[in-house]
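Take a protein:
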Amino acid sequence: MEKRTFRDTTLGTPQGGIVSPLLANIYLHELDRYMERYTALPRWEKTKRRRRKEANFVYVRYADDFVVLCNGTKRQAEVMRAELSLFLKTTLCLELSKEKTQITHLNEGFKFLGFWICRAMGQKGMITRVTIPKEAMDKVKAKIDLALSPSRHQDSIMTKILGLNRLIGGWCRYYRYTGKASSQFGKLDHALFWSMAHWLGRKFQIKMPTVMQRFCCDSTFVIQKQRLSRAADFPTRQYKQRFLKPNPYLTQERRFEREDLPNESYWTGHEARPGMAD
């Protein structure tokens, strides 16, 4: 699609397609191998580099998004960016975006894969925190407001709760490992509860006390065994055994608990006729 116009092409990959990250992993594997000259150094070699006032680097990549952490000067970080730009251009025929490739201090923070990563003062000194960015909170609240807007009061309750459960469940599972996630989840619960309450009031033309008496149960809303999920239903978690999260589906180490995948059926988000699911 280009400016809402479909153009047939034999080059490139569809934006947002499932094959795009797979091809990125295959093609950018050469970049991973190139960065091993800095990341695969033994501890004694990294210590030697620090004594010579040379920077060490940490490299993390997910599909076509990657970040390089440097414990040196800003000038050394700029040299690394130029080196990566040259490698991508000469070896992989890729252009490194100067607008998206920013150099920032960890104290100022940066966003990576939807997480906000920043160094701040903790109880035992300076620590690195991974938190939920404000943009992510605003985005999920905007989706809730859109689903529960006054113009959607004719939708069925069953379908509405089913869709909201998918939205809340996916968002909370993604951010449950961040710092201060419980407080952010609490704010989301408050916004979801009252948006749903007002939506039910508009749908049935009833006042708030009647809505609470008829639908509210255990700080949420239940209609015909269909329960609206709360962000508090997804307890926060922490990684304590490793610095990097292991892949729970590839590792063979038994000491890592594999995450349980949700067994709910998918939701298309569409009703042939508004309210027919009830």
